[in-house]
């Protein structure tokens, strides 16, 4: 699935700035200000124009941490988003980090290994994380409770208290895969309070669902104050 470029949407603050610009132009055309007033207005309008331009065309950045149990498909997802193709992967020992550009947002995605001996290291990547992607192997019914325990342990960390949560219910192409509703129940997502979360059914190898997840993340970032 390719990246679709759409017209940027304006926030309430950007719309307000646009209204102020129109009012300024009307006043400028109607009245003649003394120089100190004109200098102040020009400076103020310059700042508003700069902020509006940044809102329309400036690139926002979002730090994303992607974790999950081993063999959930994290690295395949990362490079499908980055390169648009499937790459041959081996179990991640440590981390992979890539920048993914999408809808005027630059996602810095940290893909951290999910083997049980590595999981205690996850906490070293929590600082300044704005979004958490938790990848679940929807076909792995035996370890879904283990996945839930790891997820809840992370969400209890103070450094992730403001991070939004995106769950990728991956490997939906497999015949015995649990659907998104079942994964939601197994992970106990409805029990989360004061946390923005979203679950997306995905297939990393085909790319199905991946950009829908990025859409949700980009909207969350855009709505942040």
From TrEMBL:
InterPro entries: Arf1-5-like, P-loop_NTPase, Small_GTP-bd, Small_GTPase_ARF, Small_GTPase_ARF/SAR. GTP binds at residues 68-75, 114, 170-173. The keyword Magnesium applies. Keywords: ER-Golgi transport, Golgi apparatus, GTP-binding, Lipoprotein, Magnesium, Metal-binding, Myristate, Nucleotide-binding, Protein transport, Transport. The keyword Amino-acid biosynthesis does not apply. GO terms for biological process: cellular response to virus; intracellular copper ion homeostasis; mitotic cleavage furrow ingression; protein transport; vesicle-mediated transport. It holds the Pfam family Arf. Mg(2+) binds at residues 75, 92. It is found in: Golgi apparatus. Its main location: Golgi. GO terms for cellular component: cell leading edge; cytosol; Golgi apparatus; protein-containing complex; sarcomere. GO terms for molecular function: GTP binding; GTPase activity; magnesium ion binding; protein domain specific binding. Belongs to the small GTPase superfamily. Arf family. This is ARF GTPase 1. It comes from Chrysemys picta bellii (Western painted turtle).
């Amino acid at each position: 699935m390719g990246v679709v470029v759409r017209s940027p949407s304006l926030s309430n603050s950007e719309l307000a700035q646009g209204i102020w610009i129109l009012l300024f132009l009307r006043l400028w055309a109607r009245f003649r200000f003394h120089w100190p007033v004109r200098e102040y207005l020009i400076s103020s309008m310059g700042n508003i124009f700069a902020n509006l331009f940044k809102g329309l065309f400036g690139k926002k950045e979002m730090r994303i941490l992607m974790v999950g149990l081993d063999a959930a498909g994290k690295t395949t997802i990362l490079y499908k988003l980055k390169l648009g193709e499937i790459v041959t992967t081996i179990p991640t020992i440590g981390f992979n980090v890539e920048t993914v550009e999408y809808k005027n947002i630059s996602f810095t995605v940290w893909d951290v290994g999910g083997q049980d001996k590595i999981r205690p290291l996850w906490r070293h990547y929590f600082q300044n994380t704005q979004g958490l992607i938790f990848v679940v192997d929807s076909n792995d019914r035996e370890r879904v409770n283990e996945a839930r325990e790891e997820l809840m342990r992370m969400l209890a960390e103070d450094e992730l208290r403001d991070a939004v949560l995106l769950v990728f219910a991956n490997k939906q192409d497999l015949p015995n895969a649990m659907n998104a509703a079942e994964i939601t129940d197994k992970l106990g997502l409805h029990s989360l309070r004061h946390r923005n979360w979203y679950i997306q059914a995905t297939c990393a190898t085909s790319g199905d669902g991946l950009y829908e997840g990025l859409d949700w993340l980009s909207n969350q970032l855009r709505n942040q104050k």
